[in-house]
Design goal:
There is one protein chain. By secondary structure, the chain is α+β, with helices and mostly antiparallel strands. It has two domains: 140 residues, Jelly Rolls, CATH 2.60.120; 74 residues, Arc Repressor Mutant, subunit A, CATH 1.10.10. 42% of the residues lie in helices and 25% in strands. The protein binds a DNA duplex through α8.
Length: 224
DNA sequence: TCATTAAATTGTT
DNA sequence: AACAATTTAATGA
């Protein structure tokens, strides 16, 4: 597909591939358009691919036994995920990934992923960094959920999308509706709206139609 | 290009 | 959760 090549080239790990490797990876990786609300991959399913978000936004969720969904984190365009699940193959996937809005998603087959792992040191270094970064992210998610008030939760959810290592090149203008922000932050849309206004008054971001412009990532990260 | 309409998003109760 | 106001996108003259 035409959109895949530039996406990989602009990723963190893409430039370390030789031209031949790059061509092979592109040929082996499939791209799918996932409608809003549809599953990118299912919890419990066998892990057959490493998954990249070319365009759009995907959230990581899990369903409780009562059917309530809990959102862990969002993955914006440019993010790749599922390496942890791949490394633990053949264990099934532990969470669902759902498109928050219509998204273009790349599926790199396990065989391709493993070949890169076996042959490309830069790719390994990238994965180590990403795993480490995610570890830190999930530790902070715990306090995020238990300690923080809604304003701070929204602030951190937005700041997380800016992690330069996990999600390079995320634009300053996040095209997220306030409803989507609420979903990612674990608060209602109304509360997200309220929080955004607080954060705007604090000078950390600017509320725009259909999105927010982030002015101070560090400020968001440490809010509250 | 402009005006009208529908759809999406936001702000407020 | 429901409502009204605002913005954007789509349509056709």
């Amino acid at each position: 597909m035409h959109t895949l090549l530039p996406a990989i080239k602009s990723s963190v790990w893409g430039p370390s591939l030789s031209p031949a490797e790059l061509a092979l990876v592109v040929a082996e990786t499939s791209v799918k358009v996932v409608p809003a609300g549809a599953y990118v991959c299912h919890k419990g399913a066998p892990v057959e691919a490493w998954i990249g978000v070319i365009e759009g936004l995907v959230k990581m969720t899990s369903l409780s036994s009562e059917g309530k969904s809990v959102t862990f984190t969002g993955v914006p365009a440019g993010g790749w995920f599922g390496e942890g699940s791949l490394l633990k193959y053949p264990e099934p996937r532990l969470y669902d990934m759902v498109a928050v809005r219509e998204s273009r998603v790349a599926y790199m087959p396990r065989a391709t992923f493993n070949r890169l792992l076996d042959t490309n040191i830069s790719f390994n270094r990238f994965l180590l960094k990403q795993l480490n970064e995610r570890l830190g992210q999930f530790i902070s998610v715990i306090e995020f959920d238990r300690l923080l008030e809604p304003d701070a939760r929204v602030a951190r959810a937005l700041a997380q999308l800016f992690n330069p290592l996990l999600y390079p090149g995320t634009a300053a203008l996040l095209q997220l509706s306030q409803e989507e922000i609420g979903l990612l932050s674990g608060v209602s849309r109304q509360r997200a709206n309220q929080a955004l206004q607080v954060l705007e008054k604090a000078g950390l971001l600017k509320v725009e139609y259909g999105g927010v412009r982030v002015l101070d990532v560090e400020g968001l990260k440490h809010f509250g």
